[in-house]
Amino acid sequence: MAKKPLTTKNTLLLIWNTINFIRKLIINIVFFPILILVLIVGIVALSTEDELRIESGSALVLDLSGNLVDQARRVDPFTQLMRQGNQNSEDTEVLLSDVLYVIENATHDERIGAIVLDLGNMRAGISKLTAVGEALKGFRESGKKVVAIGDWYGRSQYFLASYADEIYLNPRGEVFIDGYAAYNLYFKSALEKLKVNTHVFRVGTYKSAVEPYIRDDMSPAAREATQLLIDDLWGSYADTVAKNRGIETSELVLDADTYLARLDANDGDSAALAVKQRWVDALMSDEAFRSAMVELVGEDKEEHSFRQVGFHEYHKLVKPQPQFMPVDSVGVIVAKGTILNGFQAPGDIGGKSTSQLIRDARFDDSIKALVLRVDSPGGSAFASEEIRQELLALKAAGKPVVVSMGSMAASGGYWISASADYIYATPTTLTGSIGIFGLMTTFEDSLAAIGVHADGVATSEWAAHSPFRPLSPKLESAIQRNIERGYKEFITLVANERDMTLEQVDAIAQGRVWSGKKALDLGLVDEIGDMPQALAKAAELAGMATFDIQLIEQQMSPEELFIQEMFASASAWLPQQTQQSDVVQSLLRVWTRTLQEIARFDDPKGVYLYCEYCQLQ
Predict the structure, then answer these.
(1) DSSP 219
(2) Does the annotation mark 207 as catalytic?
(3) Which of 170, 194, 285, 352 has the greatest count of CB atoms below 10 A from its CB?
């Protein structure tokens, strides 16, 4: 078997795999006794667990600590156990579909009389928050109350809190709404000092993903486009919050002089200023809030608090049971994360793994239509096309495809969406970014500076390429032509699928990112809407008057399901400090994340459809 050449990507992967091995080894050594305890406690918990009882009129506490996502990454149960209870963990994830299902169920559940929003450590884009907010609207319209309580409200927390009947703030707390910004780190000078040669190949005036490697600042074109984008996003945010709270949009983010003057007028008390600005309705300590809720929903004397049930406990109680008899359904596949090649775990999009899910839908007679939920900034051009080809095969089988764009569906995310029968986006979806680039680095000058040189023989000038040798002009020309060909294919694809001319697409392409609202005006999407509208449209296109919804995802084995359930049951029995033991991972997380992300780019041609500024969402 031929030895695999050592490339920059392989080197980064080797470094990451070594770090990850050491991390897991340390964790397993430290927590092996806990693992044994979990196995014992988990078995006991599964055998003795009583059904949760909810008293009539109780409050549902929506503690949404973590990242609100369309699809959770699959991690081993032991790692998941270590995360539980650690509300500050950047890795904690909450499924948007679970939140929406819980709110919808609570709306019709006579045992639930109110919802309490506890949003202190929630992280989410405005598109997902809007979906939750609309569900809360439905809950309020049923005659039930929503209240928000917090020690601090940031931009995301306050957006969702604005959907509540009343917002309460701790007397020592603060509301901090800062607007949107898009900043990046630029490495041109640093790379020059390190004598690293960066070779960039791109098409698209606004394809800014490569700018950090070739500039020390944002280009004028990227600055113009990004400013318009964040202004559009902020307009949607401000309009929604101002309407919800009955205040002027100009009163949400005060200029520095006005803010300082009003803060001084309130003796420097930011909480009092929040009341004066009508950002919140009242200041309440935890005890005052407990008393107010006891009056609203009744007292739980055993717990010395108000009658309540937590989000996770309630979801576990009411979540739908799997159906074993096939019924006519609209299938749902979530395409969330970076688009990579091969088979990828949930939380990333794999060219092979996502295609396999689409293929499963094609050969499942109970699936009559498909909704592809896209939440991706793009990635590998090859994997993107692989997925699109499988969607075409599904359509050829007579099954309509509808795309529901989440927070972002840009670049490769738009590529896999373009051939759908119908495309929905939310007003704040980041989409477009129709452009393409390639990036290669060589280190011949870095090595020469320390007296290391590469030399040898090859059977052709193509075989002589190495990250430790200069990139030949002919190879550069070949790569650039490949990139140009890819861009032409991209705009041709969009032109054909969206009934536009190449000139029309090129004018709105060039790598530029658009909001969903603007994308509708430009013809890149068909309608503003979210998952409910996409599901209804898919059923309509399939001629279904009634339908079920079937999530198509990578299946866990019975053994994995048992272990997951056992660990979930055991977590409630373990000491809180055990659940929060994340020290080793925290120490390694910061400096390993960059290596891990860089190493994930794996297109066989080195060609990428990726949106840098989609991380705004």
Answers:
(1) -
(2) yes
(3) 170
